[in-house]
Amino acid sequence: MQFDVGVFGATGYAGREAVRLLSAHPAARVAFTTGRATGHLSHEEGLARPADAYLLALPHGVSGSYAETLRASFPAAAVVDLSADLRLPTAAEYATWYEHQPPAPALLGQAPYGLTELNREAVRGARLVANPGCYATAMALPLLPLFAASLIADDVIVDAKSGATGAGKGPREELLFCELADDFSAYAPGRSHRHIGEVEAALFAATGRRPSLTFCPHLLPVKRGILASLYVRSEHPAAAIREAIAARYAGERFVRVVDAPPRLSDVAFTNDCLISVHDGGPGRVVVFSAIDNLGKGAAGQAIQNLNLQLGLPEAQGLVSSGSVADVKSSTVPWGLRRDGSSAPKPPGGVK
Amino acid sequence: MQFDVGVFGATGYAGREAVRLLSAHPAARVAFTTGRATGHLSHEEGLARPADAYLLALPHGVSGSYAETLRASFPAAAVVDLSADLRLPTAAEYATWYEHQPPAPALLGQAPYGLTELNREAVRGARLVANPGCYATAMALPLLPLFAASLIADDVIVDAKSGATGAGKGPREELLFCELADDFSAYAPGRSHRHIGEVEAALFAATGRRPSLTFCPHLLPVKRGILASLYVRSEHPAAAIREAIAARYAGERFVRVVDAPPRLSDVAFTNDCLISVHDGGPGRVVVFSAIDNLGKGAAGQAIQNLNLQLGLPEAQGLVSSGSVADVKSSTVPWGLRRDGSSAPKPPGGVK
Amino acid sequence: MQFDVGVFGATGYAGREAVRLLSAHPAARVAFTTGRATGHLSHEEGLARPADAYLLALPHGVSGSYAETLRASFPAAAVVDLSADLRLPTAAEYATWYEHQPPAPALLGQAPYGLTELNREAVRGARLVANPGCYATAMALPLLPLFAASLIADDVIVDAKSGATGAGKGPREELLFCELADDFSAYAPGRSHRHIGEVEAALFAATGRRPSLTFCPHLLPVKRGILASLYVRSEHPAAAIREAIAARYAGERFVRVVDAPPRLSDVAFTNDCLISVHDGGPGRVVVFSAIDNLGKGAAGQAIQNLNLQLGLPEAQGLVSSGSVADVKSSTVPWGLRRDGSSAPKPPGGVK
Amino acid sequence: MQFDVGVFGATGYAGREAVRLLSAHPAARVAFTTGRATGHLSHEEGLARPADAYLLALPHGVSGSYAETLRASFPAAAVVDLSADLRLPTAAEYATWYEHQPPAPALLGQAPYGLTELNREAVRGARLVANPGCYATAMALPLLPLFAASLIADDVIVDAKSGATGAGKGPREELLFCELADDFSAYAPGRSHRHIGEVEAALFAATGRRPSLTFCPHLLPVKRGILASLYVRSEHPAAAIREAIAARYAGERFVRVVDAPPRLSDVAFTNDCLISVHDGGPGRVVVFSAIDNLGKGAAGQAIQNLNLQLGLPEAQGLVSSGSVADVKSSTVPWGLRRDGSSAPKPPGGVK
In this model, does residue B345 exceed pLDDT 60? Predict the structure, then answer.
């Protein structure tokens, strides 16, 4: 099966990554792209183009109304919105966290939240999916099984560090090479960060619990990757926390528990989320969660969702680094597996 | 007054920074340096050279015995040991955290812990000073007034990020440019990190309280700087925490409370520690503390201590970025003040 | 068709890249890897393993004798040696440039020089191929058609800049992150650099001319990529130089002439060599040539050669960035094409 | 003596560096700064402020008319214009290279070209100085003595690499961290680059010869520094070229000939220009010239000129790295000497 896909916002970092991944996807054909540079359609032209699928990598506040138009014009098409416009379930929650009205209120609650490993079946049947944010993905994946099993207390501290593609491509002075290189700092500390709203809503929907997150994002002088360092309180030892996460994702290709703290380089250019768990002293456990913010945190997960919506193998066209056991000690230490090939290729000759 | 100083270990990053700072110090004359490259004395040759002062920037486990020799040979000289060998008060504590016997047990407890703003008077009268570690400096400065006034609970989470000079200059594969660039990760999570022992001992000596630290160091792809993100529990609002820290360091040139989260670039090449305080949600306060790990975290603080030991102005030869109010809004936004000049130079013409 | 391949030296940067590429190669199965870390075979174990193909990514001076052993043990297997050991045609030339005797003198002149676009037919029939060096590849590709048609004078200046993976993974102080970051310099200027010997031999073999190269390599604070800036003297205008290169590589997928000076990011993670040509003032033309030193400069070209040796499509498993016209102005600007898929996927919807 | 100085354009990289240097200058008092951020005066306000000296770090095309105003309002004040507006001797030459009319034609030829080591006496007597560009400084210093003594042929190739502060602080997409990091390329190749005009005019004025430069600038992923690799033709050996440059700058503190190719880190944060000379094959010599583009290439040289205009010691407030012999082999390898202190501090104890 082949499918035609239009990518809106292909000049931004997430849209560009989507095009890059789709170009290597065995079933995808990029039918058109929209953007602000020569060679791209205008967004309006794109809205008139029939296709099997659409990826919306447009700014927050704009994307939602495009989703509405596409739903109306091409009801059979699969649409994934990478913006935040459709992630919250109600207009009230949206207004609380974003401090303005949602751009597409009628669609709120209509599009499943595309954290694939959480909502796989809902995504499979949906025409429109709200793709999660990068921070929320990194946080929610380890926290979901812990809250679901009531293994940890409600107050969780998340010290998150993101590469600069997460801040977008708009030319702002503070994002210049000469400003960011050699530097590091937190931003937006203590403010009600919209990512808190998104992840709390997702955790509540899935577990019925409303955690109390302290969330501090930091900006790294790297291009790609998020490392979230989570400090949780628990009566259980780190081993039990680790086991709960590992059990929850036992069958998953892209979410894996590893022994050593994951590095950004372990997940760069992949769709993986690597998680490690460590003792943090009495009553305290430390959990690290690493993703590529453009991969599992944006374009990769969007394609993972699109695959499901279109009835394709979920991992088709996506890259995984293999288990970290492989990464650290196998004969194919850095081998990347690009799915879509017929069968796994287990390395032979392992001692 | 002029003084002659010998620098041991001048080929390492801390020793090199010490030489750089001393070369611009109006009263200092670098009498000799030791190190493993052409043009340096051997350590043994250095031990036989009379001087007014010595800085020991040698590896842990080696430095302490050099301090003993210098104390015996030149009892009138001022000595600052930048290693960890003399920082803990007892051999038992040393053995607990370092898992081997201390190299100079007779000196333990004899050298004041040179966190200058804490132990200024003891440093002034001492011939031998144990210079604090970089992580401990970044953590202890904001925590001291909070524990002293019992404003926070004992369990403190420290998510610390350090530049790579903190890992030293020994050629190890994991410190290669091609390994570190574009990357980021935690290391030694959950293990009883020796920096915990150092900071807990300092806090206990100063406040009588023994905190319970969860300490996670991360390695940044930058050369210089430490940012420690501290998550404390408190019944008091962030404003009260901020005020307590500001009041404690009201007269200090190098330790200052600022409004926005400090950047590494704010403290790079300075002797400053910049601290900011933010609301972290119910019962939670976030404190950021930034230093240059080679400045206030090593060579800068060593010279600050040396100045006191020699009866010189404490800030002589050291660089401060000015108050952040200056940095952000004055007419001399990035002006660095190098002390030792006769008088402050207030910028004129401020609107 | 599937083939089993053993990779020697898989812990180095070139060997690691080879494993990464082979893991995504639709016909390749990595049968074993050798290296100095857990999970790899020893080199000796590898020499006893039958396979369809072998890649030797071992240090210069070691690799050649492994090639001899493999040729003797498995005469039907395809072998590509990525080292410099077999690149020069005679022991005399080897001794001139390397200042010691060649490790495998009997093989000199037996293995075709695997600059694929130059020696495609020889490579196709060979069991053993000498893979070119990264600098030589970047220089030789633009120079070959110019010398062949006698369009330029013999004296050519090559100002080359390489990413740090080109310096290898051995832990040396000058390759530490804290030494290389923020820095830049030339190295080995004016000395008879072995890359000159390699490229002069290749040009002589192909064109009968012996150029007089001034070659200055510089080390960039980036991981991947080589940009060679070539300054040639010519009576012909830049347009004629450009046309000659473009005509020579008209049918080539991986060697392409572009309008703007190529960036390292245009070729990173690809097997491409992008070349641009510019007027340099009276009688002078400037040619830029960019490759990924680990791609076309090492592992990529090795697999390109291996494909030919094994009768597979030459581009299988390799990545191209598409024409620069695409890169700059098409609807799929950054789309990477990974060959091995059934058919090209022309982007639709171009305005 | 103390002097009051106003800095125009203090929010740009050159202006910011000027303020940083002046803040550590023992005789300078920053009277005011102008710029586009809170805390700075507007440019118009600055023009009305009396001061002893002014530094104009404003964009090309704007700066010249400010120089005119200041000359008229405060004829006794010393003014250094860091822009290109006053560097060319005639309006015709200006129009040729800049393709528009000069902003202050009446001042052309009135302000000496402030390449200090070339025009020291003219600068000393001038109220207005045209500060050289960074590329021109790096090129002209080694070329001047070679053309003056007719040691080299007219055709010179300059392959220059600059840090990104040279591209300014205006937020443009191509200067974003995510665009520049890990990347490298040439820009403006083959076009008549304005820096050629500047350096050719300076060389003609000083030597009566008009060279034919091929000049290719490249953009490095570093903040500070320029390395110019010059390829000259000469009948003389490299040793004679080296000797000619060394003899010309024998008494100079900031321009020095060194043995190994200079690194950007050798000159970063200094006012130095380090030059090395190497054999480049028959009839060819390679010359490397390294400066900090914000130091000797902009703010540092501006202050060097200002010192002369004001009758102060030329090196006051400026930093030198010491001779490279010191840097590589003395007991004070990385010692920076900040002038203004009473006397040199020779390191003792050298073996």
Answer: no
Token readout for A41 is: 């359609």
Confidence label for A322 from pLDDT (cuts 50, 70 and 90): low
d(CA C167, CA C162): 9
DSSP letters along C83-147, please?
SSTT-SSSHHHHHHHHSS--S-GGGTTTS-B--HHHHHHHHHH-SEEEPPPHHHHHHHHHHHHHH
Note which residues in 137-166 of chain B have CB less than 8 A from chain C. 164-165
Q: Taking 60 as the threshold, does the pLDDT of residue A232 lie above it? A: yes
Residue D20 to residue B336, Cβ atoms within 8 A: yes
A/D interface, count of CB pairs below 8 Å: 56
Q: How far apart are CA D335 and CA D346, in angstroms?
A: 11
Q: Which of C20, C37, C350 sits opposite A336 (nearest CB)?
A: C20
Binned at pLDDT 50, 70 and 90, residue C191 comes out as: low
Q: What tokens were used for A246? A: 């590992």
Q: Are C159 and D229 in contact (CB under 8 A)?
A: yes
Cβ under 8 Å to B: A residues 288-327: 288, 290
- The candidate with the shortest Cα–Cα distance to B80, out of B102, B61, B56, is B56
pLDDT value of residue B191: 52
In degrees and rounded to multiples of 5, residue A305 shows phi and psi of -65, -45
Nearest to A272 by CA among A323, A218, A343, A335: A323
- pLDDT for residue B24: 86
Average pLDDT on D11-39 reads: 94
Predicted confidence at residue B100, as pLDDT, reads 87
Is A252 in contact with A315 (CB distance < 8 Å)?
no
Nearest-angstrom CA–CA distance, C282 and D2? 52
Using DSSP, how many helices (H) and how many strands (E) does chain B show?
12, 14
ipTM of the predicted structure? 0.91
| Shortest alpha-carbon distance between residue A74 and chain D (Å) | 34
Torsion of CA D122, D125, D131, D132, to 10 degrees: 10
Amino acid in the structure at residue C29? R
Residue from D11, D169, D176, D294 to probe the interface with A (highest A Cβ count within 10 Å): D176
Mean pLDDT in residue range B241-256: 97
Cβ separation A159–B231 shorter than 8 A: yes
Q: A22, A169, A345: which to substitute to probe chain C, counting the most C Cβ within 10 Å?
A: A345
Got the DSSP string for C147-163?
HHTT-S-SEEEEEEEE-
Which three-class secondary structure string do you get for C282-326? CCEEEEEEEECCCHHHHHHHHHHHHHHHCCCCCCCCCEECCCHHH
Integer Cα distance of A58 and D51 in angstroms: 51
Question: What backbone torsions phi and psi does residue C113 show, to the nearest 5 degrees?
Answer: -75, 115
pLDDT at C334: 35
Other CB atoms within a 10 A radius of the CB of residue A240 amount to 16
pTM, 2 dp: 0.92
Sheet hosting strand A284-291, strand order edge to edge? A185-186, A212-219, A155-162, A226-233, A284-291, A273-279, A255-257
Residue A281: list chain B partners with CB under 8 A: 155, 190, 212-214
Cβ distance A178 to D13 less than 8 Å, yes or no, reads yes
Percent with pLDDT over 70 in chain B: 91
Note the pLDDT tens digit of each residue in D249-258: 999 999 999 9
Q: What is d(CA B20, CA D341) in angstroms, rounded to the nearest whole number? A: 15
Question: A231 to chain B: which residues are within 8 Å by CB?
Answer: 157, 159, 214, 231
B58 and B168 in contact (C-beta within 8 Å)?
A: no
Residue C149 pLDDT class (50, 70, 90 cuts): very high
- A10, A38, B91, B104, C348 from C351: Cα distances, Å: 15, 9, 77, 77, 9
Residues of A in contact with B287 (CB under 8 A): none
